Amino acid sequence: MTRIFLAGASGAVGRRVVPALVAQGHEVVGLTRHAPARVEALGATAVAGDVYDAAGLAEAVRDARPDVVLHQLTDLGAGDRVANAKVRTVGTRNLVDAALAAGVPRMVAQSISWAYEPGPGPATEDTPLDLGAAPDRRGTVDGVASLEAAVAELPEWVVLRYGTLYGPGTWYEPGALMAQLAQAGNLPATGDVSSFVHVDDAAAAAVAALEWPSGAVNVGDDEPAAGHDWVPVFCVAVGAPEPRRVDGERAGWARGADNGRARKLGWEASTSWRDGFTRA
Question: Would the pTM of this model clear 0.85, i.e. be above it?
Fold first, then answer.
C-alpha cells in the first residue's frame, strides 16, 4: 500500500483518480477547497485546505505522511487562464515546499502539452518550451515552466503533459465553455493542431505514473488533429451549428504532441476525440 496525498482531489481528473487508487489498495488523502464530502464519498480521507495557505498546506502534507504527492490542481472553473497560471506558479511552489519539508520522495504533477516552441510536427518531450512566446501566450508558458522546474526539485518526479482535456467536468462537455462558444458560432475551424485526452485516460495516466521513471511524458490520444477536422465533429456532438472554416497556416506552436513515450511506458488512450466527444 502506498500513501498518497492528492492535491485537487475533487477536480475533473482528481475525482476519477481517487477511486482508481483506492481500488488498487492505496491510502489516499485528498486536498479540496470546497468539497470534502465528495472526496470522502470517493473513498479518500478529505482535507479541506487552500494551496495558497503555505503554512496550512505544509501541515496537511506533514500530517498525511505520504509516499507520493499527486498534483492535479487547476483553476479553470471560471475560464480564467491567469488564475490557472497562478495555481501553476504559487500553488505548485507551496506544494513542492510542503513535500520537501515532509521528506516526500516523489511527486506526479499535471502539466500541458501545448507549451512547446513552434515546429513542423507533433512535439516530443525533448522539444523546448516556448519561452519566447508572444505576450498573450507567455503567461501560460511561464506558468508551465515554473511548475515543471519546481516539481523537478523532488528526488523522483513525473510531469504529465496532458493534451486538451475533454469529457465530463471539462470545458468540452455539453453546456460548458467550448460548447457555448460553438453554439454562438465563435469556435471557428482553423488549421491549428491540437492533441486531446479524455479525462478517464488522463486519470489512468496519473495512476500509472506512480511507477514511471522521472521525467516529462506527453499524455494524449493517437490522433493530433487540425481544427478543420475536430471542430466540426465537436459541434455535432454538442448540437452546435456547422462552424465557420478559416483557411491558412496554423500557428507555429499549435502542433500537437507525440505520445510515443507514454505508449512505451504502457499507457494508451482508450478512445480518440472522434468518438470521445460523445462519450459520457
Answer: yes
